[in-house]
Every structure is written in C-alpha cells, then in structure tokens.
Amino acid sequence: MSGPKQPPERDAGRMPRVKVLTTGGTIASRPRGADVVASDGPDELLTAVDVDGVAVQAEEIVRVGSYGIGDEELRRIARSAVVAAGANDGVVVTHGTDTMEETAFLTDLVHAGGTPIVFTGAQRHAGEADRDGPRNLNDAVRLAAHPGMRTAGVTICMAGNAWPARFATKAHTLAADAFAAPSSGPVAICHGGDVRVVARPDRPAGFALSVLDAPLPRVDVVSAYAGADGTLVRAAIEAGARGIVVAALGAGNVPPSMAKEIRAAVEVGIATVVTSRTGAGPVVPRYGGAGGGADLVRSGAILGGTLRPAHARLVLALALATAGSQAGVADLVARHG
Questions:
Q1: CB 95 within 8 A of CB 66
Q2: Could you say which of 14, 137, 149, 294 would form a disulfide bridge with 116 (CB–CB 3.0 to 4.6 Å)?
Q3: Strand 90-94 relative to strand 17-24: parallel, antiparallel, unpaired?
Q4: Pfam families this protein is in (predicted)?
C-alpha cells in the first residue's frame, strides 16, 4: 500500500462535512443503579455539538465499554472509519478510553487517505456535572474539519491535545488529560474554539483495508519482570498464538529463563517482537549475556523500535496476515517500529 493520499479539495463555498461514528464508552455512559454503562446513542451525543460552519452527521457502530472490544469490533470500527473518510471531509470516532489507543492505531495502519480521523472520548460520564465529553467532542469535530489536519492521519483528541495514533497511549486512569505520546508530542492543540497544528506525523505506508476482512491472527503480549520464566511464553503458544510480543525490561532485556523460551518459540516459527514496558524510548540490542537485547536478536527475535506493546501486537498481527515469510514479517515490523 502506498503512503497517505491527498484527499480531494473541497468545493469552494461548501461547508465541510464531518461524520461522527459512535461506539459507546464513558462519553456515552450514564448511571444505572450502582454502575455506569454505555447508554447514549448518536442522537444524544450530537446534542452537545456546537461548531459553526461544519455539517455534522452521526452513526452508531457499536455501543459498549471499550474494555469489551475484541477483534471483531476492532476491525469493524476501523473499517467504518476509513470508509467514512472516503465520503467526508473529516471523521470523528467516539470511543471508550480503555482501548482507544489500540483502535485508533489499527485505523491509522489501514488508512491510506488524507482525510483526518479523530478519536475522542471522556473520563467523566455523561451524567456528571463537570463532564468532559462535550468539550472533547467539539474539539474533535473542529480538528476533523481543519484544513491543516489533512494527511495527518489518525489522532486522539482529549483535553485540548491531539496526539498521533502511532504514539498515543492512555497515561492516567482517571485524569481528564489522560493521554500522552511520550516518544513524540502533540499534533495539534485545541483551545477556546481554535485549532493550532504544531506537527505533522511521519506515516509509513500501511496495510490494505482488505486485511480486516478476516479475523486477525492471534498475537499475545507477555510481560517480563524480575525473575520471570518462560511459563507465559509457553502458555501463549499452547493457546494458539502465531506471534508473541514481549514487554521487556528497560531497553529490551528479559531474565535468562524467559530468553530460553523465547528462543524456543522462534525456533518453532512463532514470530516474536521485543518491546519495552517502560513506556517511552526504543528497544536496542545493547546488552549481551543470556536475556540481553543482543542475545534476543541473535535468537531471532524482532526488535519493535519505539512501538508500545499494545501497538506492536497490532502491527505483528497485520504482518502475519499479509507477509509470506518470517523475513517479510520482520520487515513490516521494522517499517512501523
């Protein structure tokens, strides 16, 4: 697939069209008894939109808390967003924050066009007096309609900051400004109805949208910790994983007994990508000895660069679904790492 394409120029004098796709999450949630559940649909969410000069329509894709999103929902949301981008000047996806970074990144990986796709949500539910959903939604609509965001790809907009999907992550469980991009920085800043674009992400060529036509290969994430052995690596293989992402220590190291099982996994054809559990910075083959990053590379493991574990899982799954060889898988991971 080629790199991002320029979207067609909008007809002079025509109001920009932004499609809002709703998927549930806290932004759509209200109290039900002692719990909070996704309740509001597109009509309710649209009542909060107040952006002059933009034509906004909404459509519901699914209505769930994002902790309930699995492979089928991931693929459906990403596909719906990319298809909507082909018929509008911008797309907004309202989404729960728990797995927003995964759906946004998957969407970016299959979005070849230049139409902005903006994910947004809320940290406070729709029944709270100080709810943040309306502001985030209005910021996202302005961002999606802004000409400076053309070819910026997919972003996550929360609390006035727009983060590139390639690097964005949820960094706080409850704070309104819950997202960050430690290995990057914001793409744009929204304040008082204004949008200021401050960066343009480097977007490598991604994957064809058709890769989402079938369930993605199983890829499991296994975390390293002091004294970790290979039990979880073996469990992933026994569960049917075709790939494993290791959330390694530091710059890409694991305990020696875990390294032994990683080597064994690679030897039986399980693609294994090494990332870091630290949250920022690349993995590098610096340290030798059993379990060091250099040792893992010699065993055949693939370094994931600056990919976070959850992001690397998606890249590896797409690579396994499209590449014809282990070398091809490694090349695709390297392209996005």
A1: yes
A2: 149
A3: parallel
A4: Asparaginase, Asparaginase_C
Is 80 marked within a binding site?
no
Q: What is the CATH number of the domain that holds 25?
A: 3.40.50.1170
Q: Are residues 99 and 71 in the same domain?
A: yes
207, part of any domain: no
pLDDT digits (tens, 9 = 90+) for 123-132: 999 999 999 9
**Same domain? 107 vs 235:** no
Residue 26 CA to residue 121 CA, distance in Å, equals: 7
Round to whole Å and give the CA distance between 309 and 274.
8
pLDDT reported for residue 121: 97
* CA pair distance 38, 40, nearest whole angstrom: 6
Q: Is the pTM of this model over 0.85?
A: yes
Rounded distance, CA 99 to CA 170, Å? 9
pLDDT digits (tens, 9 = 90+) for 207-265: 999 999 999 999 999 999 999 999 999 999 999 999 999 999 999 999 999 999 999 99
> Strand 154-158 to strand 161-164: parallel, antiparallel, or no bridges (unpaired)?
antiparallel
User: Under DSSP, is residue 315 helix (H, G, I), strand (E, B) or coil?
Assistant: helix
In sequence order, the 6+-apart residues with CB closer than 8 A to the CB of 298 are none
- What percentage of residues in the chain have a pLDDT greater than 90? 90
Alpha carbons within 13 angstroms on the beta-carbon side of residue 33 total 1
**Does 322 appear as a known binding residue?**
no
Enumerate the active-site residues: 26, 97
Per the listing, tokens 């309609």 go with 145
Q: In 10 A of CB 265, how many CB atoms? A: 25
Q: What is the DSSP letter of 249?
A: B
> Annotation-wise, does 132 bind a ligand?
no
Q: What is the DSSP string of 33-76?
A: TTEEEE---HHHHHTT---TT-EEEEEEEEEE-GGG--HHHHHH
Query: Do 125 and 263 belong together in one domain?
Result: no
- Asked if 246 and 301 touch (Cβ cutoff 8 Å), the reply is yes
